[in-house]
Amino acid sequence: MVRVLKPVELIVVASEKGRVTVKYPYQEPLVTSDFRGAIRIDASKCIGCGACVKACPPNALELLESPERLVIRYFVGRCIFCWRCVDVCPVKAVVGTREFELATDRVEDLFNYTVHRRAECRECGSGFATRRMVEYVTEKSAVSEYYANECPECRKAKILNAVARRRGGV
Amino acid sequence: MSESVKRSIWVYHLNTGGCNACDIEVLDALTPWFDAERFGVKLVPSPRQADVLLLTGPVTIEALPKVVNAIEAMPRPRYIVALGSCGVGGGIWHDTYSTIGGVRELLKILEARGVKVDGVYYVPGCPVRPESILYAIALFKGLVEKKVKSEVAYSD
Ligand code: SF4
Ligand code: SF4
């Protein structure tokens, strides 16, 4: 038989147990090591390849492109903290943090931008990819130096011309 | 914000089509362990009694008319606290056919209908931690400082 405690007895039990309520926000929150919070992109490492943008399920990371700039926009308000971007980044520029105190009254606070400059084509001068990406590729494979400074359009035209010359005119 | 809501904040919790994870965390925040009632938070059963609408979910098109009705029924000053990735930015549903994609789109619809909202709080998280909810309440009451800010970083 379960005995039902009388209110007086309950008070005794409760005072023995003491207070369980946490004092947060006036104390440190409980954050375990496998907790995933917001991510941070280290702009000094990022090469602007867009792998994280492709991997992000809710498009919290987006590429904003213009002829001069390439911007990776991170909208924390849409992030689901899956850390797929952390896994896919080839240069380990994305780091996961344990930050979760992200509440704000202005939605603009939730946008972070990483701005890249475009690489300039050796032939036509137009912008393509990013400077950092071209540097990264050249570093990885020296032979790519011969064509890495050209935009895809010029590269295409060059190959077509070369083929045409071989055949003695198109 | 705490200027216009000096008394306890009465909260109407409205799920607009979310997966329920944020709602469970809301319940968690109300348990004796986290105890949101420390800050005077009280869940009320009707939007007519509420100061704050606790909005979870990406606002499905099915729920939209009811959400607008609920917000219209709230007395001024009225505030919206959008919880979770869905509530704030539509989450993984932000571009699907059956949702409008979170509170930002909802605010545009409300503005077009002439429904005024006195303030919106955005609380990211998927789901939001109970501590995040407590932090948002403390921010609402002016007890803690805002921590996030927009950053623009240049690669060179
Ligand atoms: S953690 Fe997941 S949702 Fe958030 S930015 Fe990275 S890939 Fe996108
Ligand atoms: S995957 Fe890494 S290097 Fe590529 S754009 Fe994202 S952060 Fe930058």
From TrEMBL, chain A:
<feature type="domain" description="4Fe-4S ferredoxin-type">
    <location>
        <begin position="37"/>
        <end position="66"/>
    </location>
</feature>
<dbReference type="InterPro" id="IPR010226">
    <property type="entry name" value="NADH_quinone_OxRdtase_chainI"/>
</dbReference>
<keyword id="KW-0004">4Fe-4S</keyword>
<dbReference type="GO" id="GO:0009060">
    <property type="term" value="P:aerobic respiration"/>
</dbReference>
<protein>
    <submittedName>
        <fullName>Membrane-bound hydrogenase, subunit NuoI</fullName>
    </submittedName>
</protein>
<dbReference type="GO" id="GO:0003954">
    <property type="term" value="F:NADH dehydrogenase activity"/>
</dbReference>
<dbReference type="Pfam" id="PF13237">
    <property type="entry name" value="Fer4_10"/>
</dbReference>
<dbReference type="GO" id="GO:0016020">
    <property type="term" value="C:membrane"/>
</dbReference>
<keyword id="KW-0479">Metal-binding</keyword>
<feature type="domain" description="4Fe-4S ferredoxin-type">
    <location>
        <begin position="68"/>
        <end position="99"/>
    </location>
</feature>
<keyword id="KW-0411">Iron-sulfur</keyword>
<dbReference type="GO" id="GO:0046872">
    <property type="term" value="F:metal ion binding"/>
</dbReference>
<dbReference type="InterPro" id="IPR017900">
    <property type="entry name" value="4Fe4S_Fe_S_CS"/>
</dbReference>
<dbReference type="GO" id="GO:0051539">
    <property type="term" value="F:4 iron, 4 sulfur cluster binding"/>
</dbReference>
<keyword id="KW-0408">Iron</keyword>
<dbReference type="InterPro" id="IPR017896">
    <property type="entry name" value="4Fe4S_Fe-S-bd"/>
</dbReference>
<keyword id="KW-0677">Repeat</keyword>
From TrEMBL, chain B:
<keyword id="KW-0004">4Fe-4S</keyword>
<feature type="domain" description="NADH:ubiquinone oxidoreductase-like 20kDa subunit">
    <location>
        <begin position="19"/>
        <end position="138"/>
    </location>
</feature>
<keyword id="KW-0411">Iron-sulfur</keyword>
<comment type="similarity">
    <text>Belongs to the complex I 20 kDa subunit family.</text>
</comment>
<keyword id="KW-0479">Metal-binding</keyword>
<dbReference type="InterPro" id="IPR006137">
    <property type="entry name" value="NADH_UbQ_OxRdtase-like_20kDa"/>
</dbReference>
<dbReference type="GO" id="GO:0051539">
    <property type="term" value="F:4 iron, 4 sulfur cluster binding"/>
</dbReference>
<dbReference type="GO" id="GO:0046872">
    <property type="term" value="F:metal ion binding"/>
</dbReference>
<protein>
    <submittedName>
        <fullName>Membrane-bound hydrogenase, subunit NuoB</fullName>
    </submittedName>
</protein>
<keyword id="KW-0408">Iron</keyword>
<dbReference type="Pfam" id="PF01058">
    <property type="entry name" value="Oxidored_q6"/>
</dbReference>
<dbReference type="InterPro" id="IPR052375">
    <property type="entry name" value="Complex_I_20kDa-like"/>
</dbReference>
